[in-house]
Amino acid sequence: MSGLTLDQDGHLTDHTMWTPDIAQQLANTLDVVLTDVHYRILGEVRTFFDKYHHSPSTRPLIKHLSQALPNDEITNAKLQTLFNTGLVARHVNRVAGLPKPPNCL
């Protein structure tokens, strides 16, 4: 990914550099093509980060998304399917351009 500075875990070092195109570049590493639902989720994850000043771990992430996006019926299993990973919080935050959540593998 030319021009992007990533940390050792593949997260952007500067979350303010994030764009939807960068999100797709990051999602490519998971073999995921982003759709409208992905972008709604990523937008809400970024809203969480702006409000609380940290990346959400799995339980707060799912709670926030299910309240913010009730029509998308967000569950852990749905996020695993959408983002092609069992490490939901880590990779959703990574594709959203945010730091790895605390206590995340």
Q: How would you explain this protein's 3D organization?
A:
50% of the residues lie in helices and 0% in strands. It has helices at 20-28, 36-52, 58-68, 76-83, 88-95. Helix 2 (36-52) packs across helix 3 (58-68). The chain starts with 19 loop residues before the first helix and ends in a 10-residue tail after the last helix. The mean pLDDT is 93.
Structural class: mainly alpha
Overall pLDDT confidence: 93
CATH fold label of the domain at 24-95 = Arc Repressor Mutant, subunit A
**Treating each run of at least 4 consecutive H or I residues as one helix, how many helices?**
5
Shape annotation = globular
Q: What percent of the residues sit in helical stretches (DSSP H or I)?
A: 40-55%
N- and C-termini, Cα separation: 23 Å
How many E-type strands?
A: 0
The helix/strand series, from N terminus to C terminus, equals: HHHHH
* Regions with little confidence, pLDDT below 50 for 5+ residues: none
Q: Taking Cα atoms only, what radius of gyration do you get, to the nearest Å? A: 12 Å
The CATH class of the domain at 24-95 is Mainly Alpha
* Proportion in β-strands: under 5%
- Biggest sheet details: none
Named CATH architecture of the domain at 24-95: Orthogonal Bundle
